Amino acid sequence: MRLLTHNMLSCNIKGVTNGFPLAIEATTVETKEVDMNPDFLRHIFPKLEWKAFRDASHSLGVDDLPEQVDPDMLLDEEFLRRFHHALLEVHLEEGVLICPETGRRFPVSKGIPNMLLNEDEV
Amino acid sequence: MASRPELQAPPEIFYNESEARKYTTSSRIIEIQAKLAERAFELLALPDDGLPRLILDIGCGSGLSGETLSEKGHVWIGLDISEAMLDVALERETEGDLLLSDIGQGLGFRPGTIDGAISISALQWLCNADKSCNDPRLRLKAFFNSLYRSLARGARAALQIYPQNTAQLEMITTAAMRCGFSGGLVVDYPHSTRAKKYFLCLVCGPASVNSALPRAKVGMEGDDSGSDLDSGDEEQQTVTVAERHRPVKKRKLESKIKGRAWVLKKKEQRRNHGFSNVPRDTKYTGRKRKAHF
């Protein structure tokens, strides 16, 4: 799972009002190289929750993202490269996602988070 | 005819390893899936600016439909309930991220984040009540509600479905409309039982000029000129209809008009059966009436 998906994903348990962001407990992290597409990065940037994205990248061991961002930085090649790396190249392979409100743990195996809920959580 | 997979087992059990394997080995399945995905993408009608977008593939299975999205240069996230199918997707090294999730429990995405959604042959599974806790109406409601929430305003969803009957089709469509979607059903190849395909085309937000429904395909499947959406479609439709009805009419006429010989034979039969009220045979028997009668 890439951080792009993590940034869109929230906890879906019934009654949970603030299921975002899911905390990450990473066991295995992998990096797969992908071609950079600046257009996509600029398109997706306004939709990202930057703080959650930065925190998530920390828990996957990527530390070179700035704390404050503004859209002007998207013109900077160096920033785009780091942004691209954290968003699309770093994969969480094994680990756990944790709901911030209920503490419910969603296991991630082979890069696929198991978001299935139990009967009483629907 | 094989019975519908929906009637055999819940999706997470029906799509086991051997069933999932078919999606890598059977070229027929692969071709059909790719064609449907291509069409769903067309119905999604994304703005033609070459910008890559974030698309959901609902019921992505082995990621065949996602491959179409990757080819068009879009980034996608796939959801499926079957682990075996997702394993196949991993093997195929699809580009999108995969989630193991039950769409009947709602999609857990942040509001307004997704630019579009496609789904190939997945939604009819929601109409099953496999467990006692499953109510199809509630599951459809949860799905469409969460889909509406996740989609950006004005974004579209093109969902291909195999409804079991009209009631099911209506149930799915009403559930979508109740959640605020505008749009409706596009039926491709409506004259053919086998090639007929239902696409639920939904637009997030109230109906507007931009949310007009795309036109359905009507020509013969596999015929390239017929699948062209523009000119000549209407003509082709009339031709198909005419051809279908003409022979039937002819046969009816032939069997209705019976000649003098047939009448005489029937009268003879009645006499032999002992009926005494059979009129005698004259030069008028079985003769055609004059027009001014």
TrEMBL record, chain A:
It comes from the Eukaryota. One of its GO terms (biological process) is rRNA (guanine-N7)-methylation. InterPro entries: Trm112 (IPR039127), Trm112-like (IPR005651). One of its GO terms (molecular function) is protein heterodimerization activity. Interacts with TRM9. Belongs to the TRM112 family. This is Uncharacterized protein.
Automatic annotation (TrEMBL), chain B:
It comes from the Eukaryota. Residues 56-155 form the Methyltransferase type domain. InterPro entries: Bud23-like, Bud23_C, Methyltransf_11, SAM-dependent_MTases_sf. One of its GO terms (molecular function) is rRNA (guanine) methyltransferase activity. Keywords: Cytoplasm, Methyltransferase, Nucleus, S-adenosyl-L-methionine, Transferase. Residues 202-291 form the 18S rRNA (guanine(1575)-N(7))-methyltransferase Bud23 C-terminal domain. It is found in: Cytoplasm; Nucleus. Residues 216-252, 266-293 are annotated as: Disordered. Residues 221-236 have a biased composition (Acidic residues). SUPFAM superfamilies: S-adenosyl-L-methionine-dependent methyltransferases. One of its GO terms (cellular component) is cytoplasm. GO terms for biological process: rRNA (guanine-N7)-methylation. PANTHER family: 18S RRNA (GUANINE-N(7))-METHYLTRANSFERASE-RELATED, METHYLTRANSFERASE-RELATED. Belongs to the class I-like SAM-binding methyltransferase superfamily. BUD23/WBSCR22 family. This is 18S rRNA (Guanine-N(7))-methyltransferase. It comes from Adiantum capillus-veneris (Maidenhair fern).
